[in-house]
Specification:
The complex is a heterodimer of chains A (271) and B (261).
Chain A (H helix, E strand, L loop, with lengths): L3 E14 L2 E14 L3 E5 L6 H9 L6 E6 L2 E2 L7 E4 L11 H5 L1 H5 L4 H14 L15 H14 L4 E5 L7 H18 L2 E6 L2 H7 L2 E5 L6 E6 L14 H33 L2
Helix pairs in contact in A: 4-5, 7-8
Chain B lengths: L3 H35 L11 H14 L2 H32 L1 H16 L6 H8 L3 H25 L3 H9 L4 H39 L4 H10 L3 H29 L4
Chain lengths: 271, 261
Amino acid sequence: MDTPILVAEKLAVRFETAEGPVTAVDDVSFSVRQGEFLSIIGPSGCGKSTVFNVIGGLLSQHQGTVKVAGELIDGPHKSIGMVFQEESTFPWRNVVDNVAFPLELTGMPKQKRIERAEHFIRMVGLDGFEKRYPGELSGGMRQRVSLARTLASEPKILLMDEPFAALDEQTRLLLGDKVLQIQQQLSQTTLLITHNITEAVQMSDRILVMTYRPGRVKRIVDIDLPRPRTSDIVGSEAFGRYVAQIWNDLREEASRGLKDEEAHMLHEARP
Amino acid sequence: MSAAAPARRAAALADIAPAATGLACVVAFFAVMEALIRSGLISEYIVPPPSQVIDALGRVVMEEHIVRRFFLTIGECLTTGVMITVFGVAGGVAMHRYKLLQQAVETWVAALAAAPVVLAYPLFMVIFGRNAWTIIMIGFVAALPPVILKTIEGLSGTRKVLINVGRSFNLSGSQQFFKIMLPAALPTIFTGIRLGLIFALINIVGVEFLINYGGLGQLINDLAERYDLPGTYAAICFVILVSVVFFMTLEKIERWLRPAT
């Protein structure tokens, strides 16, 4: 658990916009240990998704380095499996074919990859829905299909960008349980990008709190709650303390973000 | 149980109501036309009463080799369909791939979609002669633009997140195209092919009429030249019926090919 499998050092990303260059992320360094669950939390506009894209190799124009098991990566890497915020199942494939997609790319024989896909479908609790198409499933079920598809590629690191952001709070808590159960079952190293404090505290070993633009590391909080964990932990006193502590850190950043947004809107509305 | 039966009946009625209303409208239209023609408000030397058209339909089917003509027209349509699918999709893919080509040509293709290509039939007759290829090529030129434009639209409309999923799995360029972009674009491409086939059918029957060669279009021309008005209208009704069946068949094929929708 102590060996870092993912190390990000001095990440910085600058974008050119119509109003001049914007520094989205600046001097962000952190590491994720083998089997650890780390969440990155911050207000809207703090560059969380930019960090997700850099780690996933989808954004090449950045400064700093990302290493996976000591190997410097520059682009998508087979060790990192990504789950996206937007609905990302393939609508033309049924559930089993969606999940078997990464196995198909490896050239695995059809029967074997179907069996393997069914294993991951059971893991996310979608057995019975193998032949259904995404259009016949709810939003939460579709996100579980995406999760199963990523797990089927057996990544060393599971990288998730607000995968349950579009779901209601109760579904989100229950799916959080499912993710926790899988993470514990597979000892899966997981990096979760989120803006939801409850979700972060429910699942994480550590939480990295980011500042509002430019996104920097404000603080890393160790979550010393017992494992195995479920959503029952939400009612505990210690859970409440962590939520309050992180909100305390985030409130100032979220207020800055809100003021910035209002100032921007005023500027836009000015004749 | 007793409460469920009326609910089932109501649901069954709701299911057939749209089709029944549509059919009732057609019957009402024919009844009004019959009344207007019989009363002399519309001259029966220009438009025959629907009852005579229905009578003539059996005669046209029996005496005018309508089955052979039908298969000739449908054969021309299907040949055109294969050609627009191959060249239209390939053209759309090339234009999506090479932006300069797209910027240079897309407006012309869109303009061609609105052009009455059928009027250029003498030129096609000079090039291909008075045979089925003239008809097929006019159908092809008229039906190609929607396939090209819809292919570009479908490929450009592939959701960014699906492309990113492909990138996250390290797909090569061709894998990205064949496993993600093309399947994602297929519904839109199929809409283009369906539109193209409808354009093709309209133009093929039109050119058959104009050059008095081939299948159903030639039949309408023959009957009109004989001043067999009930027969002419019966043939026109048959072509409309063929178009409707053709369109419905395409919809069925589309649903069969894309069970996800």
